[in-house]
Write a structure and sequence with these properties.
The protein is mostly helical and about 450 residues long. It folds into 2 domains: about 260 residues, no CATH class; about 60 residues, no CATH class. It contains 19 helices and 2 strands. Helix 3 packs across helix 4, helix 6 packs antiparallel against helix 19 and helix 11 runs parallel beside helix 13. Pfam families: Xan_ur_permease. Belongs to the nucleobase:cation symporter-2 (NCS2) (TC 2.A.40) family. It is found in: Cell membrane. Keywords: Cell membrane, Membrane, Transmembrane, Transmembrane helix, Transport.
Length: about 450
């Protein structure tokens, strides 16, 4: 996809554009198709670990979809100061899986939802409220690195899906790899070699072709659709609430990570326009993360946060319309009210989604790289920040056993690649003299005497 001189990609639909309804619906469904499996996977993993039955598991999945949809709608259209008015699709992040599982096993799901209820808006609301003060600490150098590591961190997740899903009996089977490659190939060919609606819907078409082939091969089980209820009503306090100090502290740290991810994802979206988000957009987006996570916990939904796969779709298709994402939010909310519809979507094999997730993860990382290239002078000082931040962040992902001698809480905290990358970049950028530092307004050692680095986008 071409890039203009000011760093914008060639957008088919800009932020406030309204595509025709048929196209908007299909584009919205495409967003849902890419994120629905990873969004609900957290619920399935935690429910299995704590021993929930089929009915309770289905209810938790239902609530995740419902509040993901409501949060997505708020991000697109806002409610007062809550919402960014950006095409941000919301879902449950894998950031919370480990803590929700261990706390759920040790203290029960009541402690999990109690901690989310307390810390969600308390942490992210405070960050959003004071973001104009802390924004100087998150220049493009830091946010770009966060976007890159989010994308790179998602690549193994996508590959696991492409292989059939972790723990699957046919993990790595030829038919799984073949389905994933088919979806990936169809999406890339349509996006690169066609124009119009086929390019815009390239990911959805790829998933559709892969699903049709999976049905033909007998890899799809429609049994759960018949047994699912057509409609279910949310129940407040379905698993009760408990307020364990260790659970509250753990989720407070994780919401800090969630805020960093959201800052990175929002930067990845607005990078399509060659800019960083405004203070108001950052504030509204973070408010949505925290408030909807707390509200969702009251009904047994896990925390919702921005979804990086969908940032990749925006950059891959060139469709930045927030109204398309609003449609996706409505679809998610409807799925959350109808377990039968959700069960039908869940019949799509993991390998089919895997092909799309691998593609989207790569696009997320690429959008983060574009933020760096467009807005950061990659001199010696900044290259050191990039090298150390990505080296440590990817290091704890690839070799988590290196932290095995640390206390459990430290392993949980420092085992998160987004935490390590973001904190390293934040500390190095803050205390190392240079133009990106909020403490030093001086040119770096390699900057020419006129105080300018290489020309900014649009300059000669």
């Amino acid at each position: 996809m071409s890039t203009d001189a000011d760093g914008k990609i060639e957008l088919e639909y800009e932020l406030d554009d309204r595509p025709p309804w048929p196209k908007s619906i299909l584009l919205g469904v495409q967003h849902v198709a890419v994120m629905i499996v990873p969004a609900t996977a957290v619920a399935f993993i935690v429910a299995g670990a704590v021993g929930l039955g089929a009915a309770d598991t289905a209810y938790v999945v239902q609530m995740v979809l419902l509040f993901s949809g409501l949060a997505t709608i708020v991000q697109a259209y806002t409610v007062g100061p809550v919402g960014a008015r950006l095409p941000i699709v919301m879902g449950t992040s894998f950031t919370f899986v480990g803590a929700a599982t261990s706390i759920g096993v040790d203290y029960g799901l009541g402690a999990v939802f109690g901690a989310i209820l307390v810390t969600g808006f308390a942490v992210e609301g405070l960050i959003g409220w004071q973001f104009d003060r802390i924004q100087p600490f998150f220049p493009p150098l830091v946010t770009g690195l966060v976007v890159i590591v989010i994308g790179l961190y998602l690549v193994p997740v996508g590959v696991d899906y492409a292989a059939g899903g972790v723990g699957a009996a046919d993990y790595g089977a030829v038919h799984n790899i073949g389905l994933a490659l088919l979806v990936l190939s169809v999406a890339v060919v349509l996006n690169v070699f066609t124009t119009g609606v086929t390019r815009l819907l390239s990911v959805l078409v790829g998933i559709g072709v892969g699903y049709a082939v999976a049905v033909a091969l007998g890899l799809v089980d429609f049994g759960p659709v018949a047994s699912a209820a057509p409609f279910a009503v949310p129940r407040p306090g379905a698993f009760g609430f408990a307020f364990e100090p260790i659970a509250v502290v753990t989720f407070a740290f994780l919401f800090l990570v969630s805020a960093m991810e959201t800052v990175g994802d929002m930067s990845g979206v607005t990078a399509a326009e060659g800019r960083n988000p405004t203070d108001e957009e950052f504030r509204g987006g973070l408010f949505t993360d925290g408030l909807l996570s707390s509200l969702g916990a009251a009904f047994a939904a896990f925390p919702v946060t921005s979804f990086s796969q969908n940032v990749g779709i925006v950059n891959f298709t060139g469709v930045m319309s927030r109204h398309v994402v609003g449609v996706a939010g409505v679809v998610l909310a409807v799925l959350g009210l109808s377990p039968k519809v959700g069960a039908a979507v869940a019949t799509i094999p993991s390998a089919v989604f895997g092909g799309a997730v691998v593609l989207m993860a790569g696009m997320v990382a690429a959008s983060g790289a574009r933020l760096l290239f467009l807005h950061v002078d990659l001199d010696r000082r900044n290259m050191v920040v990039v090298a150390v931040s990505l080296g440590l962040g990817l290091g704890v992902t690839m070799r988590p056993e290196a932290l095995q001698e640390l206390p459990r809480a430290a392993r949980t905290f420092f085992g998160e690649p987004v935490i390590v990358t973001a904190l390293t970049a934040l500390l190095l950028n803050t205390f190392a003299p240079g133009e990106q530092s909020p403490l030093f307004d001086v040119p770096s050692a390699e900057t020419p005497a006129d105080g300018r680095g290489r020309s900014q986008p649009g300059e000669d």
